[in-house]
Design brief:
The structure is a homodimer. By secondary structure, the first copy, chain A, is an alpha/beta fold. Chain A folds into 3 domains: about 200 residues, NAD(P)-binding Rossmann-like Domain (Rossmann fold); about 80 residues, N-(1-d-carboxylethyl)-l-norvaline Dehydrogenase, domain 2 (Orthogonal Bundle); about 140 residues, NAD(P)-binding Rossmann-like Domain (Rossmann fold, 3-Layer(aba) Sandwich). Chain A is about 45% helix and about 15% strand. Chain A contains 16 helices and 15 strands. The first copy, chain A, has an 8-stranded mixed β-sheet with strand order 3-2-1-4-5-6-7-8, with helices on both faces. In chain A, α1 packs across α3, α9 packs across α11 and α11 runs antiparallel to α12. The longest helix of chain A has about 30 residues. Chain A starts with 7 loop residues before the first strand and ends in a 6-residue tail after the last strand. The interface between A and B is large, with 58 and 58 residues.
Amino acid sequence: MLKEGRVKVAVIGLGRIGLPTAAVFARAGAAVTGVDINPQVVETLQEGSCRFADEPGLQELLSDVVKRRKLVATLDLGIAVSSSQFIIICVPTPVDQTKTPDYSAVKKTSHAVGAALREGSIVIIESTVGPGTVENLIRPILEEESGLTAGQDFGLASCPERSDPGNILENLKSVPRVIGAINGQCGEAVAVLYEAVLGVSVIGVKDPKTANAVKLTENLFRDVNVALANEFALLFEKLGIDTYEVINACGTKYNFVPHYPGAGVGGPCLPSNSYYLIAEGLKTGNIPYLIRLAREINDRMPDHVVELVSEALNEVGKTVKGARIALLGVTYKPNVRDIQLSPVQKICERLEGMGARVVIYDPMLLDEEVFGHRVERCADDAVDSADCIVIGTAHPEFYQLQLRHLSRIVNGRAALVDGRNVLDPATVRDAGFAYRGVGRGTS
Amino acid sequence: MLKEGRVKVAVIGLGRIGLPTAAVFARAGAAVTGVDINPQVVETLQEGSCRFADEPGLQELLSDVVKRRKLVATLDLGIAVSSSQFIIICVPTPVDQTKTPDYSAVKKTSHAVGAALREGSIVIIESTVGPGTVENLIRPILEEESGLTAGQDFGLASCPERSDPGNILENLKSVPRVIGAINGQCGEAVAVLYEAVLGVSVIGVKDPKTANAVKLTENLFRDVNVALANEFALLFEKLGIDTYEVINACGTKYNFVPHYPGAGVGGPCLPSNSYYLIAEGLKTGNIPYLIRLAREINDRMPDHVVELVSEALNEVGKTVKGARIALLGVTYKPNVRDIQLSPVQKICERLEGMGARVVIYDPMLLDEEVFGHRVERCADDAVDSADCIVIGTAHPEFYQLQLRHLSRIVNGRAALVDGRNVLDPATVRDAGFAYRGVGRGTS
């Protein structure tokens, strides 16, 4: 049935998750309609163009499925929903300035989907939401708008995306999917669909809230463990102990899993996910203190990098005020063209607030405007006449920085602060820099 | 040289780590003198008897090496130290009531070792201590008592034990060892010795404090991750989500490592190790908040079990006051005969404080006196006429509990609180019990 194009799927939200998901469903033979509220996003897809050049294989796949009309794009959510058996919702769920989950896109989408929903369809939520959001927020909206009853007239399930930006097509075909549906029949239908399309195993859990809890638990595991690594780093710096030496030695114990410290945690997931769970905790009077503290530790790491910059500049007799600072790497992680909640933004803003002149280089964003700066075309242009180099993202090319060459083009004696453990401290010092690194003792 | 018995080793402290360590060094051919301050411990070893019946293979090994005079035991630390090239210190490092590291045994041992130390010997610290303790506490004592200089006249190294009680002989021959010495020559000598004796790989780190940081980091990773699991459990109980279902589903993600919630964390290591690092942090004005909070969460779990007991008894119309409570399992983990800092002690004391009559059964402690109670000889004797069963330790036999049978010998309708996820909730309820489990929603 899938191969014959008789399975009709609407994917709502053509962002970093929705777009490859739509493409992969189309490749498997489904007739897919991609929906977005942004006309430019729809137009780009209609042309078969890909907005995510950093997703390997996606451009080729999109060109193919759009050309074969397996995937079409529209602004018209109503038509897409009313003509589809499966409606997959992939809209963003950020947090606002006060760290409160912002479900406005999910709510707005649920209203629109509900208004167009036909009996027998199944709505699948891939967006990351707090446990209970599908049952207590999305379900009532869908039922009220459609006049239908979930579990009886239409299906409803959570199948949270589990992909890693920059590697999404690979993840889609290898990471098992977790499905929590409103009843067994609906769960079975969604499982069959995802297994057939993605070729991955499917883990059925009791209900949507359990599936959403799984998604948050696995991401918070990472956030908390990075925070723990950062806590060790802050302490070991003071004790003159090299955190990387410690963590790598720990890695030889059978039950230890290495996580590394750094300049902070960014991106669309980890900086927000904790707050979805904290919000649900607050409703029950049960605050996840550890998760909240971990988030605060990770959020403070950019400030620590600024402290290291100040220390390192001090060592060469300079102040942050008036210093020219070359910020190498601003994306929230290597190899993605994405500055969403990048901790490097805070580093940039704080240094400028202290009177530094910041120059940015990032190989993923050449010549673009980032944090109010035009990104330089090469590392040399950024480092030229700099008083301090700060490594904000571990892009592969930074491992090959020619330190002796750079030390000749900086402004006299300069500082280098490595926020991502990209460079060997001894080599940096040998090249003449005053070195600081997150988690590295000054001994 | 090892095989010829020309390597002379003193092992100070014949506890759960020191005793198997001494035996394994003796088996490898070293002439080992075991030293303890407790005459009974020395006498037991002299007879070739083993105090740790729960350590597989240890009794046989001790009988053999004692019979062959490869391992001798003495109270006389001075003679043992002055006649040995390697002095391995395995004395306990607990925390006191105020959670302050109690290094008194390490200090006393260091004084005694220093007074008897000969030029050319190497002192190896296996005891878990805070980073800096070897450099700033042990080294000065050894130097002052001996009149010798570390790194010049004698060697000094940390080689923290990394074994898991109940599995120590296995761990000794499989878990790599981390060695941080006072200089390269000493590190090399210790590495050669441990590689030859244990047949494991050795990771050399910069200095003793780095080795001690490794030991603490790997244990705190576990403590913090168990605390995180407990935090999820407390929240998911309120949200009606099964924490085990969540964690097991998370386990299908490539970068997630399952840790499980429970009635608390006990034993000689995890409940204390955080405080060694916190103490060092306090000295630098850098408190590891996350590690401290994790410890507090784990320390509170016994109170949560008491809450669940109260809830479950309430469901069958009973109060804790006057209830007969069968506590199944009191050791700090399965298969060890060890109640050191077992969280079950707190559960027992709190329930008794509330007026319950507690009866204890533990297959590792049959007929012994524990927490002021004589341990029953079988589960049935404990459960007979009980109003509530509490599972405190996941001993293998508890997975086979005959619930229908037990429900007939309890006092009317009874409660069952599973602190260790040993039983299937539905099966417990089907047998007629009011069920509660850590991390299990009541819905």
